[in-house]
Design goal:
Helix content: 25-40%
Order of helices and strands: EEEHEHHHEHHEEHEEEEHHEEHHH
Bound molecules: 1-O-phosphono-alpha-D-glucopyranose
Distance between the termini: 62 Å
Number of strands: 13
Radius of gyration: 20 Å
Largest sheet: 9 strands, mixed
Structural class: alpha/beta
Oligomer: single chain
């Protein structure tokens, strides 16, 4: 297919489905939404929101559920803390707590019954209307020079339509993901021909797994409405994308970035270590700590000090 410049207007809305119960993190999730668990120095959900902000999104829509009000509180203004920090002259902490809430309009709607990712996205229909929009799954933190969602926007800008993020994964991990079959168009872009939700390695059409970033055309709403419950008896976004494929082109982009799946306790622990080792304030001490435990080589300045 010839590349056509798509003249659609810039996307403004980013959707975060956050209604999931977080059973993998029980007992913590009895009291705290999993999205609020700590990843180095901020809650998990903030990484995705910062990614959307740096890609230019102005409106963030959370699809929430019962027990998730801490998310709303977190992204709200906090006049008490702001006053306290102003009085103490702590400008840095002040900038930190205002960084995201100042730049974005937040909107919340409820998924009354968690019936799958496709069902969650359908809850956004009335708020999104007839525009293309982004979806970010907060469990996956992706560190990259160009925000991953903006890599997808570039493909959307060039080809139009729907774009999903994919990465090559080990065969034994394919059953955790939606997996695509596509025709390579160059530059890591594939025109989708098929998608399967959580296939066995033997039935997977490729090793390209859908990771948690999507640019969706508004046609997805009708596709979801026509989608029957699939894997785990849930309305799967993957199945809806497969229906959409029959109506309009869908693309996949092999994204560039280091991805951390923080949706399990082990994944979150690994992400904490990996991101602490990249964090300007904590990396040296973390490096020393791991070196003291004999897990990695001591940092260069330790050698110098002998
Ligand atoms: C969801 C999607 C799946 C996708 C994955 C990415 O699965 O259904 O297609 O590959 O996110 O993380 P979940 O992890 O919610 O089970």
């Amino acid at each position: 297919m010839a590349r056509e410049r798509n003249s659609s207007k810039p996307l403004t809305k980013a959707v975060f489905p956050v209604a999931g119960l977080g059973t993998r993190f029980l007992p913590m999730t009895k009291a705290i939404p999993k999205e609020m668990l700590c990843l180095v120095d901020r809650p998990l959900i903030q990484y995705g929101v910062e990614e959307a902000v740096s890609a230019g999104f102005k409106e963030v829509l959370f699809i929430t559920g019962r027990g998730k009000s801490a998310i709303e509180k977190y992204f709200d203004f906090s006049p008490d803390f702001e006053l306290l920090l102003r009085q103490k002259g702590n400008r840095r902490a002040m900038a930190d707590i205002k960084r995201v809430s100042d730049h974005i309009h937040f909107c919340y709607t409820r998924q009354k019954d968690p019936r799958g990712l496709g069902h969650a996205i359908l809850c956004a229909k009335n708020i999104i209307g007839q525009e293309a929009f982004a979806v970010l799954l907060g469990d996956e933190v992706i560190v990259s020079r160009q925000p991953v969602i903006s890599q997808l926007l570039d493909v959307h800008q060039e080809f139009g339509g729907t774009v999903v993020a994919v990465q090559r994964v080990d065969k034994k991990e394919l059953s955790n993901y939606g997996v695509i079959a596509g025709r390579p168009l160059g530059g890591g872009v594939h025109q989708l021909e098929d998608l399967v939700e959580k296939p066995t390695a033997a039935k997977a059409p490729s090793q390209l797994a859908v990771v948690g970033r999507y640019v969706l055309s508004p046609g997805i709403f009708e596709a979801i409405a026509c989608t029957r419950p699939g894997k785990n008896r849930e309305i799967q976004l993957t199945d809806a994308l497969k229906l959409l494929l029959a109506e309009e082109p869908v693309y996949a982009l092999e994204i560039r970035g280091d991805r951390y799946d923080a949706g399990t306790i082990m994944g979150l622990l690994k992400a904490n270590v990996a991101l602490a080792l990249k964090h300007p304030e904590f990396r040296q001490e973390m490096h020393r700590y791991l070196a003291d435990l004999g897990l990695i080589r001591a940092p260069a300045d330790n050698h110098r000090r002998g």
